[in-house]
From TrEMBL:
UniProt superkingdom: Eukaryota
PANTHER family listed in its UniProt record: PUTATIVE (AFU_ORTHOLOGUE AFUA_1G08990)-RELATED, SMP-30_GLUCONOLACTONASE_LRE-LIKE REGION DOMAIN-CONTAINING PROTEIN-RELATED
Organism placement in taxonomy: Eukaryota, Fungi, Dikarya, Ascomycota, Pezizomycotina
Keywords: Signal
InterPro entries cross-referenced by the UniProt entry: 6-blade_b-propeller_TolB-like, Oryzine_lactonohydrolase, SGL
Domain SMP-30/Gluconolactonase/LRE-like region per the UniProt entry, residue ranges: 210-387
Database matches in Pfam families: SGL
Identification of the protein by name: SMP-30/Gluconolactonase/LRE-like region domain-containing protein
Amino acid sequence: MVHARRTSLAPLLSGATALLLATATAQGNNVPAQAQVINQKSFNVLGDVPPPTVANYSTLFIPPGTTKDSLFEKPFHIYDEEFLDIIGANPTLTLLKSSGTNPMFHEAAVWVPSTDDVFFVQNAGDPAAGTGLNRSAIIQRISLSQVTADVSAERNATGKVDVHLAVATPAIINPNGATNYRNRILFAGEGQGSRVAPALYVMSPNAPYNATVILDNYFGRQFNSINDVAINPRTGDIYFTDTTYGYVQDFRPETVIQKQVWRFNETSGAVAVAADGFNMPNGITFSPDGQHAYVTDTGVIQGFFGRNSSFPSSIYRYDVEEDGTFSNRKTFAFIATGVPDGVHVDTKGNLYAGCGDGVHVYNPSGKLLGKIWIGSTVANFQFAGKGRMVILAETKLYYATLKAEGAFPGQLY
Ligand SMILES: *[C@@H]1O[C@H](CO)[C@@H](O)[C@H](O)[C@H]1NC(C)=O
Ligand SMILES: *[C@@H]1O[C@H](CO)[C@@H](O)[C@H](O)[C@H]1NC(C)=O
Ligand SMILES: *[C@@H]1O[C@H](CO)[C@@H](O)[C@H](O)[C@H]1NC(C)=O
Ligand SMILES: *[C@@H]1O[C@H](CO)[C@@H](O)[C@H](O)[C@H]1NC(C)=O
Ligand SMILES: *[C@@H]1O[C@H](CO)[C@@H](O)[C@H](O)[C@H]1NC(C)=O
Ligand SMILES: *[C@@H]1O[C@H](CO)[C@@H](O)[C@H](O)[C@H]1NC(C)=O
């Protein structure tokens, strides 16, 4: 009985939400100028559902009644009314820079509160970048003090913000993931060939960007290509994902060790496995209270082996015990377009994921609240404190303003 009542209530509630949102749109209030409501009921039944040769992991979904242009014109897509509280009254999206075909804006976005700089890295395995085996990806930064209110008033502010090189000494080889760590930047380096091992590096956030390697092996064995890194806010331990993108992108040997999540206590030097059972473990972050960890699996993308629908394009959520161990793996979300790559949380515990069409936003129960729709792959992005976000769309660098505030500003641990 109880069960039957619950299931009959569910459509009513979502119907009410849809009605509320539809009313808001009709009246023109509540829905901010750069936002639009996407009614999921409008595409539950398409009638003519395209075959997989036409609609698959690499295609954008254009809901009925919209176009690619209309989706980008109002890029804040409201799937649930909870999203209104995340974007606030006047969210904005601004293009800051294009880099042609060279993917200069890939991952490892880190905001440094003391200087208001945001660092990020070039794609380490993309043939168009020429990086990987023969050349390392580079690190760059922008100064957010240059990104003023009149920049966000424009959709295209190309030329108004300078992008600077940040050359670390010694060099950080093929950086891919990064996070704030004790007022420094902690980079995950993917390595290069068989002689430059993947490593964790810490870099000073101030010129001349001196760096130190803090981990490069597990009992004498190399990692595959360390992809992303996050700090457990309750213990201060470093957690990182290690996967084989270096191999399938032609710059590391074939799988050398299980692809999994590791933890590292820098104080004691102890390295231990935190979780396995992945195809391509990729992004990692913690909830603001440290009680949960999110890990993405981008198995659909297999580098030179192509793409494969039989593998995950998923976000998993774990409980994190007080001792730092992971338990209760739960499948949190599955992504239709592209894969979920970098993940971050806001102060309220909502989860943001960089995907094939932009940034998806989920509440802690895994309900899709909305998207910041770019119309192409966002491998990563980062909050820059309260109400600001930098979005890395490979060859395009965007700046967004919204109401939400990112967790983990950086000085905390
Ligand atoms: C996926 O869809 C795209 C675009 O329609 C198409 O070009 C591609 O061949 C499809 N892939 C597969 C494996 O069918
Ligand atoms: C790296 O350089 C070598 C020697 O010049 C060349 O044979 C090889 O194709 C290059 N590999 C990549 C991935 O660019
Ligand atoms: C943005 O503005 C720049 C400089 O005016 C222009 O070259 C570029 O084509 C514009 N990009 C887009 C996507 O509109
Ligand atoms: C950078 O150099 C300073 C001065 O020698 C040192 O205190 C700091 O630990 C170094 N930082 C890193 C990340 O190596
Ligand atoms: C990390 O190591 C230090 C020093 O041994 C220890 O005090 C601390 O409890 C360890 N942290 C965790 C989460 O085990
Ligand atoms: C996808 O992976 C499955 C399982 O390994 C394999 O059987 C299949 O041939 C792969 N498909 C493609 C298109 O590579």
